Amino acid sequence: MKKTVISVMGKDTVGITARVSAACAEYNVNIIDITQSVLQDMFVMVMLTDISGLNCNFKDFSEKMQALGSAMNLEIHVMHEDIFNSMHRI
Amino acid sequence: MLNLNDILETINMIRQENLDIRTITMGISLLDCADSDIDVSCEKVYNKIVRCAGKLVKTGEDIEAEYGIPIINKRISVTPVSMLVAVSGGDPVKYAHALQRAADTVGVNFIGGYSALVQKGFSAGDVELIKSIPRALSETTNICSSVNIGSTKAGINMDAVKLMGEIVKESAILTADRDCIGPAKLVVFCNAPEDNPFMAGAFHGVGEPDCVIHVGVSGPGVVYAALKKCYGDLGAVAETIKRTAFKITRVGQLVGSEAARRLGVPFGIVDLSLAPTPAVGDSVARILEEIGLGVCGTHGTTAALAMLNDAVKKGGVMACNSVGGLSGAFIPVSEDEGMIAAARSGDLKIEKLEAMTAVCSVGLDMVVIPGDTPAEVISAIIADEAAIGMVNSKTTAVRVIPAIGKKAGEELNFGGLLGEGPIMDVNLSASPKKFIDRGGRIPAPMQSLKN
Questions:
Q1: Contact B56/B28 with Cβ under 8 angstroms?
Q2: CA B136-B140-B141 angle, 5° bins
Q3: Are B272 and B249 in contact (CB under 8 A)?
Q4: Collapsing DSSP states into helix, strand and coil, what is residue B191?
Q5: Which of B113, B150, B170, B310 is most buried by its number of CB atoms within 10 A?
Q6: CB of B7 less than 8 A from some CB of A
């Protein structure tokens, strides 16, 4: 399994989770876990996903997600899980 | 599942606080390229670098995309070229051109190792190489040079110190039409490390494996941001720096080991350094000011820097398997936004910088000095720095840039990471010429007798 973290941040609006999840499905990315919260007006969501079945290359996927983010006025980052593990776990 | 706050912290460090991997540097041994015919030797050098490092830049970019962390530089360090000159003879600048050609082919932004190690004396090839440095730096754009003129074990080779004063000046004269960029790519070392991934002083030591990956991390902006939220005493400040350095360095360890795995070469070391850039929010000087100094260069700067340097090492050392290189906070004046400001306002002087180099890495780095500074004064500056390194068993270095044709108050602009800097005053009241002209060797200090 190749785990990747997709983080989504920005002003809360209707349909963020739906559209990000739809994009994941489109690229055959399996969502393993989702955490989200809304602080005041700020929407924050972190998805742990499995990208081993990804149907395009990683760079394209990452760029498509970022483009989706800017279209919705959100910040979306796709990053390998290990960077968080190594930084915050001993 | 990962903690939401941890994830946001990491993303914030990268997006807002300039956390990046400063460099992935591939060390390549050129010992097997030496040939008695210099043209054959140059061809072998080119071929070996292209063979070993052909995928370096692509691999770096892939990791960058996958992990979402910028990797600013992909670089190469090679065996000191003087060793090849010793075998081949001929004009050493040919090697500089071969290295430049290799750099262009593989797409790295610097190759370091146009170097000579002469701490105890000159051997075959050394003088020829040193004398060719000004031409090599002027005729190439991406080649870095370094010369080790002293060590704790060997003392200081004062003949080499004298020579290097002249070489630094000549390098500036030959590149006077390009903001004197030559000496910005030339480092004069005492106790040069053999596994340093940072330019301009990187070279691949003879004790290293044939090919190896080293990583240099960065992150002054992250430390600065963490200290902005720290209201405790200096113990708390040190603790904050340690924790932050740990996190920064873990990323270096991750990226380095991943790069080494993908390239199929051993992973060497992580260099635990705070490497600033001229960008706002990525400055070591601003960290010192956040700790409580009115301006970097005022009284107290050395103490604050000593604590910063120590805390960075303590935090970083547990985060990686193998530590090496320069490992400490860098204070390159023209590459640090806060240092540039302090030098412009006159609060940061060369004498204070010299004191600061006793407690951090690396030395008088990227300091612009008046163009009419005599060569013997540059030699004396080098000797002072080397003495600090020799006695304290640490690496020190001098990278000063004489601004040819310019006077105090004017500035040089190198562009990019090398930054820009005002000319700093040099004490020219009395000449050290007699001292420098004596030549010979300063014997190794008592600190060398450890056995």
A1: no
A2: 130
A3: yes
A4: coil
A5: B150
A6: yes
Spatial separation of the C-alpha atoms in residues B196 and B398, rounded to whole Å: 16
- Could you give all domains of chain B from N- to C-terminal order, each with its CATH number? 24-190 (3.20.70.20), 217-440 (3.20.70.20)
What tokens appear for B35 in the block? 């040939």
Distance CA B184, CA B167 (A): 12
Q: Give the helix/strand (H/E) hosting B305.
A: helix B301-317
What chain B residue is nearest to A33 in terms of C-alpha separation? B1
Give this complex's ipTM: 0.86
Residues of chain B neighbouring A87 (CB-CB closer than 8 A)? 6, 10, 247, 250-251
Chain B residue numbers touching A79 (CB-CB < 8 A): 11, 66-69
**C-alpha–C-alpha distance, residues B33 and A72, integer Å:** 56
Report the C-alpha gap between A15 and B268 in whole angstroms. Answer: 48
Q: Give, as one character, the DSSP assignment of residue B445.
A: P
pLDDT tens for each residue of B81-100: 999 999 999 999 999 999 99
pLDDT band at B1 (very low <50, low <70, confident <90, very high): low
How far apart CA B163 and CA B167 sit, in angstroms, is 6
* Residue contacts between A and B (CB atoms, under 8 Å): 66
Q: Does residue B108 contact residue B145 with C-beta atoms inside 8 Å?
A: no
| B7, closest residue in chain A (CA to CA) | A84
Which chain A residue is nearest to residue B11, measuring alpha carbons? A77
Helix (H) or strand (E) holding B339: helix B337-345
Kindly determine whether residue B7 and residue A83, on different chains, have CB atoms separated by under 8 Å: no
3-state secondary structure of B237: helix
Q: Which amino acid is at A42?
A: M
Number of domains in chain A: 1
Asked if B8 and A44 come within 8 Å (Cβ–Cβ), the reply is: yes
Contact state of B254 with A86 under an 8 Å Cβ cutoff: yes
Tokens describing residue B345:
């306002």
On whether the CB atoms of residues B84 and B115 are closer than 8 A, the answer is no
Q: Quote the tokens at residue A70.
A: 């800017």
Q: Residue B186 forms beta bridges with which residues?
A: B145
Closest residue to A87, CB basis, from B4, B8, B250:
B250
Q: What is the distance in angstroms between the Cα of B264 and the nearest Cα belonging to chain A? A: 20
In the numeric block, the tokens 């000011």 are attached to: B289
CATH number at residue A46: 3.30.70.260
| B66–A7 C-beta distance less than 8 A | no
Span B398-420, pLDDT tens digits: 999 999 999 878 999 998 889 99
Q: Which of B1, B67, B251 comes nearest A35 by C-beta?
A: B1
Question: Letter for the amino acid at B309?
Answer: N
Residues 6+ apart with CB under 8 A from A79: A4, A5, A7, B11, B66, B67, B68, B69
Q: What pLDDT is stored for residue B305 in this prediction?
A: 96
pLDDT, one tens digit per residue, over B114-141 is 999 999 999 999 999 999 999 999 999 9
Out of A9, A48, A78, name the one closest to residue B68 (CB): A78
B24: part of which helix (H) or strand (E)? strand B21-28
Q: Which domain holds residue A18?
A: 3-88
